[in-house]
Design a protein that fits this description.
- By secondary structure, the chain is α/β, with parallel strands linked by helices.
- It folds into 2 domains: about 10-185, Nitrogenase molybdenum iron protein domain (Rossmann fold), CATH 3.40.50; about 195-335, Rossmann fold (3-Layer(aba) Sandwich).
- Helices cover about 30% and strands about 15% of the residues.
- The chain is built from 10 helices and 13 strands.
């Protein structure tokens, strides 16, 4: 798929290219109550201000939540569990197993109201009697995976919360997801969360040390049948952070409308020289095993050297979700050779 404009982007177009195909929004600090639960107990009033600046006022803490799969998975990592009743977005693979986007979600007990981009079964959603819908945002002001043509019907059924997932470095959406989880009643000081945070912090320092010790050039990319996308560290939240940690990332020169990537024909896949390629590993993107018929792929120095690792342009915004990503990146940088 390809970019069709800043307001109407196909899935691979924005996120497929490495950073964001979807629809997102502007981070607005934290609002009146800093995004925290306005009630002292689950039965008390509940308020929350999201990253659009939208304030949600409910009579009590939400008990029935439907969320985009990656957002739900991140909330689950932070301790939100029984309140989750439904998901949309990738949760199961074709063979029925759990999609990596779903993290550790108990997908077997959650109702899926759509597994692919553009799928959102409003009837199923309504039947779940949602108190709240939660999603990530990549481009202001839309929620990722909520279809533009039916958003009014969807938003009429329950309030929604958007977490900014673009234009800010990786720790910010993690922190905002953690704050939301706490507002929903999860324990931010649980052993599970504190151990994940410690692992994340160690992984951050590992990337920083690897990038300093072995400053190889890194290209973040995504592969489609007709296009090779070179992703930009200017808007992708994870790439922004990798760059802050000292990773020498390729910066494409001719970005598409949304500013997340440059679309290249396969004949031009070698436009940017790289020692290491981190390649979109999501289910809708082509993987190295699928690219044997692309001579321009096989001829890339990093491919010849076996210096290609997977990369998910839609990180799970939790410490548990992102720590392994950073660990793998640090390992790949340490072992990569300059080509």
């Amino acid at each position: 798929m390809a970019n069709t404009g800043a307001g109407h982007l196909t899935r691979r177009g924005l996120l497929g290219a490495g950073g964001a195909l979807a629809l997102g929004a502007l981070l607005t600090a934290c609002g009146g109550d800093d995004g925290k639960d306005g009630g002292t107990a689950s039965g008390g009033p509940w308020t929350y201000t999201d990253d659009r600046g939208t304030k949600i006022d409910l009579k009590k803490r939400p008990e029935r939540i439907v969320a985009y799969s990656a957002a739900a998975a991140a909330l689950y990592d932070f301790g939100v569990d029984e309140q989750l009743v439904g998901v949309y977005g990738p949760s199961r693979l074709k063979d029925g197993s759990r999609d990596p986007q779903a993290g550790d979600l108990p997908v077997e007990r959650l109702t899926s109201i759509g597994n692919a981009y553009g799928e959102f079964n409003i009837e199923k959603y309504a039947a779940l009697r949602p108190d709240l819908l939660i999603d990530n945002m990549f481009i202001k002001p839309n929620l990722f995976y909520v279809p533009e043509e039916s958003k009014d019907k969807i938003f009429a059924l329950a309030p929604s919360i958007g977490i900014l997932a673009g234009d800010v470095p990786l720790p910010k959406p993690i922190e905002r997801t953690a704050a939301l989880a706490a507002a929903l009643g999860a324990d931010p000081k649980s052993v599970k969360v504190t151990e994940a945070k410690a692992r994340f912090d160690r992984a951050v320092e590992a990337v920083r040390a690897a990038a300093k010790a072995n400053p190889v050039k890194v290209l973040a990319a995504s592969a489609a049948p007709d296009l090779f996308y070179a992703s930009s560290p200017k808007r992708n939240t994870d790439l922004m952070y990798f760059k802050e940690l000292g990773v020498d990332l390729v910066e494409p020169a001719k970005l598409d409308d949304a500013g997340y990537f440059e679309s290249l024909s396969w004949e031009n896949a070698d436009r940017y020289k790289a020692d290491l390629i981190i390649l979109d590993s999501r289910t809708q993107a082509l993987q190295p095993k699928d690219l044997g018929g692309k001579p321009s792929w096989k001829d890339l120095p990093a491919v010849k050297a076996g210096q290609v690792i997977g990369w998910n342009p839609e990180p799970r915004f939790s410490y548990a979700g992102c720590a392994p990503v950073l660990e793998e990146l640090a390992k790949a940088i340490r072992s990569a050779k300059k080509l």
